């Protein structure tokens, strides 16, 4: 029997600030904007949230599974936006372009295939690696030179 190694991330690392302004000031998600950012059709939304296509809507009666999935996608978008310093255009391109580190598929395709958790782990690991590189750079700058 083989064991599957699950990478655990600090809970605080999972939640991004709302860089892309996907929530209103009163904390309500802009579901339509989130779906548009990811270029997800009603058929895509139906599939990834396991609701009937006729149930797909963006108002206060949005199906709970769809709202939850869109919250998750908004969080990933904001995590990626941190890397791109809030540039929504670059975030959108990142979602659309095939990524060699994701098996030459796009993040959007991963979402459409139900691979949310794998994509989130990829983003979190990349975020941690970037932070570690910044920390190492800061430490190197703060060391006195040896002569």
Which keywords apply here?
147 residues, 7 helices, mainly alpha, elongated
Task: Report on this structure.
- This is DUF2384 domain-containing protein.
- By secondary structure, the protein is mainly α.
- It has one domain (16-142).
- The protein has 7 helices and no strands.
- Helix 3 packs across helix 4 and helix 4 packs parallel to helix 7 (116-142).
- The longest helix is centred in the C-terminal third of the chain and has 27 residues, at 116-142.
- The radius of gyration is 18 Å and the shape is elongated.
- Residues 1-7 have low confidence and may be disordered.
Residue stretches low in confidence (pLDDT < 50, at least 5 long) are 1-7
- Mean pLDDT figure: 87
Strand-residue proportion: under 5%
DSSP, total strands? 0
- The best one-word shape is elongated
- Compute the separation of the termini in Å: 55 Å
Radius of gyration: 18 Å
- Helix-strand topology string: HHHHHHH
Q: What is the makeup of the main sheet?
A: none
- The count of helical stretches stands at 7
Protein name: DUF2384 domain-containing protein
Q: Can you describe this structure in just a few lines?
A:
It comes from Povalibacter uvarum. This is DUF2384 domain-containing protein. 56% of the residues lie in helices and 0% in strands.
What's the structural blueprint in terms of helices and strands?
Blueprint: H1 11-14, H2 31-38, H3 42-49, H4 64-83, H5 88-96, H6 107-112, H7 116-142
């Amino acid at each position: 029997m083989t064991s599957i190694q699950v990478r655990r991330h600090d809970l605080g690392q999972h939640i991004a600030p709302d860089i892309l302004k996907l929530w209103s000031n009163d904390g309500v998600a802009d579901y339509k904007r989130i779906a548009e950012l990811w270029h997800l059709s009603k058929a895509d939304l139906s599939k990834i949230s396991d609701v009937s296509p006729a149930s797909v809507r963006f108002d206060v009666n949005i199906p709970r599974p769809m709202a939850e999935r869109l919250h998750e996608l908004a969080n990933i978008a904001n995590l990626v936006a941190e890397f791109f310093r809030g540039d929504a255009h670059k975030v959108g391109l990142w979602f659309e372009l095939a990524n060699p580190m994701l098996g030459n598929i796009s993040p959007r395709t991963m979402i459409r295939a139900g691979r949310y958790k794998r994509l989130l782990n990829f983003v979190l690991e990349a975020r941690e690696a970037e932070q570690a590189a910044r920390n190492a750079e800061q430490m190197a700058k703060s060391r006195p030179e040896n002569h």
